[in-house]
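Support request, priority: normal
Reporter: lab tech (M.K.)
Component: structure prediction queue

Hi team, I submitted a job for MFS transporter from Sporosarcina thermotolerans yesterday, and the status page still shows it as pending. I've pasted the exact input below so you can check whether something in the sequence is tripping the parser. The sequence length should be 433 residues. Please let me know if I need to resubmit or if it's stuck on your end.
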Amino acid sequence: MSEVLKLKRATYHLWTFTISKLISSFGAQVYAFAVSFYILQLTGSATSFATNLICSILPRTLMAPFAGYVADRYSRKTIVITAQIATTLAIGGLLAVSLTSGISLLAIYTTTVILSLTSTFSGVTFSSSITGLVDEARIQRAMSLNQMSISFAAIASPAVGGLLYGYVTLPVFLIMYMTASAIAVILESTMNFKLFAKRKKVVEGEKKESMLQSMKAGLSYLKLQPIVMAIIWVSLVINFLFGAFLVGYSFILIEKMKMAPQHFGFTEGAFAVGMLLMSIYLSVKKEVKYPMLVAKRGVLVMGLIMAGIGLPLFFELPYTVMFAYYATLMFTFGVTQIIVNTPMMVMMQKMIDDDFKGRVFSILETMAMALMPLGMVIYGFLYDILPAQWILLVSSLLLIGTVFIMIRPSAMRMAHPELDKTKNVKSEIVQEQ
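Reply from support: The job had stalled in the queue. We restarted it manually and it finished. Here are the results:
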């Protein structure tokens, strides 16, 4: 295939990938919204609601390493399409149960587990396939469009979910979700996952690695990538410490500040709008030149935002000013999250070998998913016994300290050796003047 045709095909992939991700993200979030309401209406039990959340998180945590192994070992196109077909069938199964014997908690939990598994395999495989679907120059655009789809779904799904829940029955909603999922299957089947891929061909007669050997090889590969390891460790610490933000934000605004539910919803919407606008900006902007440097500054801003969440507990503010303050803070946080995530993901896409991408991304997801619930449990306990503003302030300082230690100047020079050259050139110009 000629280079011109490959680039045209890559452009097609950009939009097909974006539409497919939008459909799947939007459908999944609207489903989660509607099912959550249904469970609470059916049982009125917080335990039943929490059980459904566990059915979503636990399978992802347990199966992510296996998903990485599968993504590196087998056809990525087959995995993505199979996962999407399984999603369609799972929704179809729930629809059949609701029409024949009436919907039950067991049916909902089973469907949630299946959808969690399919999204794990599809998500890890898609992340591993970006460099095979689009040319290197447009990886940032692909990652930004992917994030844009997720952000748009986060903004629109509560409104659409609430509208559908109020006006259509659950079976009608499930039919709509099934149809959308089937469209995603058709779109994904037209994509060429090997267009720019650099995976090694399996030699006939070559001894195949076992799953355990393959995972060990993935860990050994990671140890030889100090920059990737630094990124992973910083990501893990962020995920753990942001338990302070995830638990504290709702606790402070609802319990301490007595903010009205609709205003609280607006502040969370500001976060999604910030993510969406920054994703759109990065999708048309040139690739970030020094992603590690940009990410370091972004995480430092995130640390300051975390501390800022507790600031109104030190100084009393008028209600309107408080609402505007938190809406601005959350918008900035949404913008900053994209500034950190997108360039770092682009950098990892380029640095990690195609044959190891599945395992590396799955290790990252497993550790992040494991630490986030742990952080939420620990911080949930801390907020019951300590002042919220001091928890946020200490967590903020820990986060900032971690960034300075993990992304120190030596790590920065390793990631971007050209930064030293730039500094040298600037110093020479100053001396000449």
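Residues 208 and 285 are 43 Å apart (CA to CA). Confidence is low (pLDDT under 50) at residues 425-433. Let us know if anything else looks off. Ticket resolved.
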